[in-house]
Amino acid sequence: MCNFEKTIIMIHFDKLEENIEEFRIKYLTNQPFSYLIIDDFCDEDKLQKLRSQIPELNNKSRDYMFANNKFEKSNYKELGPLFDELYNDLKSDRFNKFLSYISAKEVFVDPKNHGGGLHQGKKNSFLDMHLDFNYHPINKNWFRQMNLLLYLNTDWKEEYQGHLKIEDLRSGVKKELAVPFNRLIIQECGRHTLHGYDLTSFPEGNFRTSVATYAYTLHKTHMETPRTTDWFPGEDSSKIKKLVAQNFDFAVKIKNKLFGSGTAKNQ
Predict the structure, then answer these.
(1) Where is the Prolyl 4-hydroxylase alpha subunit Fe(2+) 2OG dioxygenase domain (predicted)?
(2) How confident is the model at residue 2 (pLDDT cuts 50, 70, 90)?
């Protein structure tokens, strides 16, 4: 008699597919703009093990003026087989099919995850409200349609802060979304989809941790002027910070022409 051990998949694809109609309705109708929360996104034991293997990162975000004490690792799949498995699941045809259905668009995850990766917010971390770059740094007709944010905050409590803040730039309508462990938030990207997070108060040695990846649609021609990140610092920010935010897109485009894009290099 043969004993067959069931292979445990990282992402709960069966759950996604069994509830796909409900997920589609929620994504398309949520306010202030399209987003979807999926709890228990991955196998709990596998994700806990993956979380326990995350080192303290030392590669500081390039957006240091607008992203305090935030660290990143773009090629997180190098950390071990569980990270590689998660990476492959996120860019799989099966997941692309799910994303395309719920968004009613032909959507695909960037297979090289340019600009994404493992993010770690240390003590007093924050991320100012912003609009993401719209066209891919290498594939110029790929339009950024979605952010996919998988949160790895074990034992997260409301008082730790770090909620994902979203705001519609057109209407000013805002919402704050909790970021507990094993929650995926899929968020529409566009000219109006502001997002960020406020100053955190995580306990010493515990960090706001997430994996970010991005999904795109194919544009035959550019429907928008290509832009880099647009920052919207708070009213209590310094005059210098506000001035930098106003000129950030222009400065980054000049820098990219001279030295190349760090995002394009996946750094």
Answers:
(1) 120-214
(2) very low
